[in-house]
Design a protein that fits this description.
This protein is an alpha+beta fold. The protein folds into four domains: 5-180, Jelly Rolls (Sandwich), CATH 2.60.120.260; 187-304, Serine Threonine Protein Phosphatase 5, Tetratricopeptide repeat (Alpha Horseshoe), CATH 1.25.40; 325-408, no CATH class; 412-612, Rossmann fold. The chain has 19 helices and 20 strands. Helix 3 (217-229) packs antiparallel against helix 4 (235-246).
Length: 619
């Protein structure tokens, strides 16, 4: 039985790049992997069976939409370097030729110029079976036939669709979209070298990512591995490098990554494993699955693989559960559950219910419950028997999708965000600006409506933060573990300890006293605050997973102003690098910063929640 996915909002897929003998560079190998930078919009089914695929490890099957006259998919953001032509592989599942329409717009990096771009269009009568469509990009004109369209920078929007005649119209599979005849790779290498020397942060970040994207597969793998080896590479550069590796579809490019893995240690090894599991290649897929189930694979390695291995509709992830029993460390099951959510198959739901019967940790139970609710839209709580009974009745007719619905959990709350009874770290801003008053805005609304704040004298942002923290600490259950880290110019746990402590009545009283004694001063060293939470012994250690948190709450009223990274983007990318193999859920609360998008991105990337509680500054 096939489960249809309405890809709205946008469902991201993996960009995959490869040069053939005629300099053919594959830019999309469909595999159902929800990742940037290429996006697809429409209604489609992910296919992963080998007989349905022309390249990569998956294909898209376009079928009629019951509520629309036209149906198809739209592919966005396909940058290129002066391409000669575009090719795409399609498969007409019908017994007779079918007419399909193709429209495209040029690539425009400037969002302000994307509106009102001219469209080029063409019509194709596709015979049954596989066909390759090719478009000359050197002579593209608008639909009116009068206006030339410059495709030298690539394609911004590519749309293939048709008018529906019947609800049972033949489906169309779409796979392997590639550019032909781009500029000499030597010019792209020079562009990459120049980008790495740029002193302008935004230009460097943009141009490094762009140049890596346009390199041939073999050169991109070599360049990305070299960047990951640089000890002084910025986090944004390292992220661009691992994303570039993850986009390689050519199977021959897998062996250099595997060879680099044999010598890699620490963060670089985790980045290579994540990239390997992301690559849309059958060889990469098989190697990733082999490593994920190998008994000798360490927990961080296995979690990094599982973080990236989930694909929409993939049928090879749920069987991994038998290799990750409840006794295994919690990050392994947390990563598996995330991949099961990405799969969204009936087998994935079966596995989630099995996990809920014997989770092995508070975090696994919480994640399994939340994922079941998100996939089904039903909130049946954490009762495995309730889910089992409902699923036996509804399995055959269920439509699975990530609805975003979260279950109502009987937990203490921090600024209204549920706090699980697992291993929790609170990272609290003590910078001088936290003495600013709470006046107006969402923060004032929160003070007025939160029952536990009634009758309290709350004047400053720190007053509010302290009362929220005391409230949640006093309501944590005895099975929870907790630490509170305060940061200003530097960061320090307010109760001297390595790692987290189990919640007891004496600990709750001690934390409440010390929280209420906190006072604001200094700058905003968010880097050190987060680093102390991730690394209880001040530097990376094998004991971090055991002693560290599974959930983190970051509160700040400003952007980083001191510490190792004061760039919001670099700090975000550094934290996401730390989290490879860790699976820490980061919830972020903004109580003042005007530029808080990076906080939201951090929460979204780690499956946490973001709360914007800004207050209006005094005039």
């Amino acid at each position: 039985m096939k489960f249809f996915t309405r890809v709205s909002p946008v469902l991201s897929i993996l960009a995959a790049v490869a040069f053939g003998q005629d300099r053919e560079r594959q830019v999309v190998a469909f595999d159902g992997h929800p990742r940037e930078p290429v996006t697809v919009e429409g209604r489609a089914t992910w296919l992963h069976e080998a007989e349905h695929i022309n390249g990569g490890v998956g294909a898209l099957r376009i079928t009629p939409s019951p509520d629309r006259r036209f149906y198809g998919v739209t592919i966005r953001r396909l940058p290129a370097a002066h391409p000669r032509a575009l090719r795409i592989s399609v498969f007409n599942e019908g017994d007779a030729p079918e007419k399909w329409f193709v429209r495209m717009q040029r690539f425009e990096a400037d969002a302000r110029k994307r509106k009102n771009l001219a469209w080029a269009s063409s019509t194709h009568v596709l015979p049954p079976g596989w066909s390759d469509l090719e478009y000359d990009l050197t002579k593209v004109v608008s639909e009116t036939g009068k206006q030339p369209i410059d495709m030298s920078a690539g394609i911004g929007t590519f749309r293939i669709s048709r008018r529906k005649r019947r609800d049972d119209d033949a489906g169309l599979r779409v796979d392997r979209l590639r550019f032909v005849g781009e500029e000499d790779p030597r010019a792209i290498r020079r562009r990459l070298a120049a980008a790495l020397k740029s002193e302008n942060f935004f230009e460097r970040r943009r141009d490094v990512r762009s140049a890596l994207t346009l390199l041939p597969d073999s050169e991109r793998v070599a360049a990305a591995i070299k960047l990951l080896k640089l000890p002084d590479a910025l986090p944004s550069t390292r992220r661009a490098a691992r994303d570039a590796l993850a986009s390689v579809a050519d199977e021959s490019a897998v062996s250099p990554v595997v060879a680099a893995l044999g010598r890699a240690r620490g963060p670089m090894r985790l980045e290579l494993l994540w990239a390997l599991a992301s690559m849309p290649s059958g060889v990469a897929r098989r190697e990733s699955l082999r490593l994920a189930v190998a008994a000798e694979t360490p927990t961080p390695d296995r979690a990094a693989l599982l973080q990236a291995i989930g694909r929409r509709g993939a049928t090879d992830v749920a069987p991994l559960l038998e290799h990750i029993p409840a006794k295994r460390p919690w990050p392994e099951r947390a990563a598996l559950i995330r991949s099961l959510r990405d799969c969204a198959t009936p087998d994935a739901v079966d596995a989630l219910i099995t996990i809920l019967k014997k989770p092995g940790s508070v975090r696994a139970a919480d994640d399994a419950t939340s994922t079941l609710t998100r996939l089904t839209g039903k909130d049946l709580g954490s009762s495995a028997s309730a889910w089992d009974g409902w699923w036996k009745v509804n399995r055959d007719g269920a439509t699975l999708n990530d609805t975003g619905t979260r279950p109502k959990m009987d937990y203490a709350t921090y600024y209204g965000i549920p706090v699980p009874n697992g291993r929790v770290a609170f990272v609290i801003d003590l910078s001088g600006s936290m003495r600013e008053p709470v006046k107006g805005g969402r923060a004032q609304e929160h003070v007025e409506h939160a029952p536990h704040l009634r009758g309290l004298e709350i004047k400053s942002r720190l007053d509010l933060a302290k009362e929220e923290l005391v409230h949640v600490v006093q309501n944590l259950r005895r099975e929870a573990w907790v630490t509170v880290i305060a940061y200003g110019d530097s960061a320090q746990p307010i109760v001297t300890t390595k790692g987290l402590e189990r919640v007891t009545k004496p600990l709750q009283e001690k934390l409440a006293r010390r929280v209420r004694a906190l006072s604001p001063s200094g700058n905003t060293n968010i880097h050190d605050g987060l680093s102390r939470a991730f690394h209880p012994e001040r530097k990376p250690s094998k004991s971090d997973v055991v002693k560290g948190p599974d959930t983190l709450f970051l509160l700040t009223d400003g952007n980083p102003s001191t510490g190792t990274y004061t760039s919001r983007i670099e700090l975000r990318d550094a934290v996401l690098q730390w989290n490879l193999g860790r699976m820490i859920r980061i919830n972020s609360v903004n109580v003042g910063a005007s530029q808080s998008r990076w906080l939201q991105q951090l929460a979204t990337a780690t499956d946490g929640r973001f709360l914007d509680l800004t207050s209006e500054p005094e005039r």
